[in-house]
Amino acid sequence: MSTIRFKQPGNHLSQPDTSEPPSSWRVIVSVFATLFVLVLILFGALFSLTPSGQAVGKWFGWLFALDSVQLWWYVTRASGIIAYLLLWFSMVLGLGVTSKFFDHMLDRVFTYDFHQFISLLSIAFVVLHVVVLLLDRYLPYSVWQILVPFISPYRPIWVGVGVIAFYLILLITITFYMKKRIGMRTFRIIHYLSLLGYVGATFHGIYAGTDSALPTVMLLYKGTGIAVIFLTVFWLALLGLKKLEARRLALAAARLPRNRHASAR
After folding, report:
1. In a domain, 264, yes or no
2. Please, which pLDDT band fits residue 224 given cuts at 50, 70 and 90?
3. Of the residues 1, 200, 248, 252, which has the maximum number of CB atoms within 10 A of its CB?
4. What is the per-residue pLDDT across 23-63, written as a single tens digit (0 to 9) for each?
5. Residue 8 lies in a domain
6. Distance CA 252, CA 240 (A)
7. Can you say how many angstroms the Cα of residue 88 is from the centroid of all Cα atoms in its chain?
8. Would you state the pLDDT for residue 71?
């Protein structure tokens, strides 16, 4: 992972950006580490369905009291909240990279790399959140109820919104590593769906999460939501200013030949 490098005070516009581009090995290591965690979780879930896995599970259940009905409920709650916080952090970093909001505080290369790493880590915790539901004995889920939106036995609408949000986030993360094949224009259009994915994950957490009744959790959702709204408005305002500046320069360039022609007369 990159080392945090703080910007030195001074004239930011007059100093060229000498930061090195993000090295490919960091991205490769992050991707393979995340894939390894996902494969390990999936292998553990499949192994637990076999007779040997059930025997090992009984032994671990006796050793660590894993046979408690509430244990998996605690795990899925914790992993869900952690996944949401990581997704929010990824959104903040992504908006910060796009709007250059953190350029005066953090090195742009670090922000860019950390945004990729946090995105992959959030997907890993979402997968953990989902796999644990298969192991829950109080309200067990089938694979189809997890993968197909709106057929959940518990609050199907808001659980389905969460499933769709996860698919959007997964699509955005995959297309990030396909930018050269699909083109930057297509990648940017798809990347805009990250806002929709974050909104869906937020509503999923509020209306499907059992902890949303707690004042601290609602304060968490409101605080993180306000931060994303602020950075989104800041980014849109910058886009508007850039368009106005480009239009002004285009009008000035169009008037220049006319002024020269008039002065020649």
Report:
1. no
2. very high
3. 200
4. 556 666 666 777 777 777 777 778 777 888 778 777 766 66
5. no
6. 18
7. 6
8. 75
The two three-digit tokens of residue 20, written as one number = 């090195």
The pLDDT value recorded for residue 231 is 92
- Read off the amino acid at residue 231: L
Find all residues with CB under 8 Å of 140, minimum gap 6, and list them: 133, 134
Domain limits for position 37: 24-256
pTM of the model: 0.72
Neighbours of 127 (CB within 10 A): 20
Q: What's the structural domain count of the chain?
A: 1
